[in-house]
Amino acid sequence: MPWYDNFFHGLVQDAWQAAQTEDQTQFEVDFLHDLLELQPGHRVLDVFCGYGRHALELARLGCSVTGVDISAESVHQFNSRAGAENLSAQAVNTDFLTVALPGGFDAAYCMGNSFSFLPYDDMLAFLQKIAGQIKPGGRFVADTGMIAESILPDFQERSWMQVGDITLLLDNEYIAAESCIESHLTYIGSAGTERRTARHYLYTMAELRRMLQLAGLPVTEAFSDLEGSEFRLGDDRLLLLSQKI
Q1: How large is the average pLDDT for residues 15-19?
Q2: Which of 61-70, 108-117, 134-143, 232-241 has the lowest mean pLDDT?
Q3: Cα separation of 231 and 187, whole Å?
Q4: How far apart are CA 203 and CA 78, in angstroms?
Q5: How far is CA 43 from the centre of its chain?
Q6: C-beta pairs of 220-228 under 8 Å, 24+ apart in sequence
Q7: 134-144 vs 105-110, strand pairing mode
Q8: How far is residue 40's CA from residue 205's CA, in Å, rounded to a whole number?
Q9: What is the DSSP letter of 122?
Q10: Mean of the per-residue pLDDT values for the chain?
């Protein structure tokens, strides 16, 4: 069972949603809409869709969005909101690596740090599956803050964060043999405390480009922010645009 199978519920979900602003979501949706060259009626795949903060906005713009996420809480929220607004959007509660999907999508994306959840073999299979879902010429956007050039220059073994009324303590261990960060997280809220363990696998930008190339999704552009700045050592974020061969 992958570590993330039973991670995203309770205070984890509350903290994640509290950390996302409406302005941030709108900037990211505009970025995706432009970079993926989306048009009304396009079929779009949202991998690790969460509660649908991007997918629902894209559906409001006329796209037909299918989301996949391991969190039952997130998928329930996604589908409830889509149903209430009669949007062309639906999420499936399952592991993306094993689910059967109809394919033929015009575009796909994976936003947030979920792009770092998988070790090499699974990551390559993940990218190959995405490539198999997209039409030739279709575009894919990957977003991650958990990349070697971002994390390792200023690696922090312990840090505190305040997200709304939730306090988060992170204790991080870098496992060099696996290029992996194992994080022990403590969420402290008004109703109690919850603990989780997570793993994020660090790839260099060059490694991600090679894997995407092997999967049939060669990278065409790379940015460090939504304004299209060039990615450099120490930047907090990497956004990759690929196009299926």
Answers
A1: 90
A2: 108-117
A3: 32
A4: 30
A5: 18
A6: 221/35, 226/27, 226/28, 226/30, 226/31
A7: parallel
A8: 32
A9: H
A10: 95
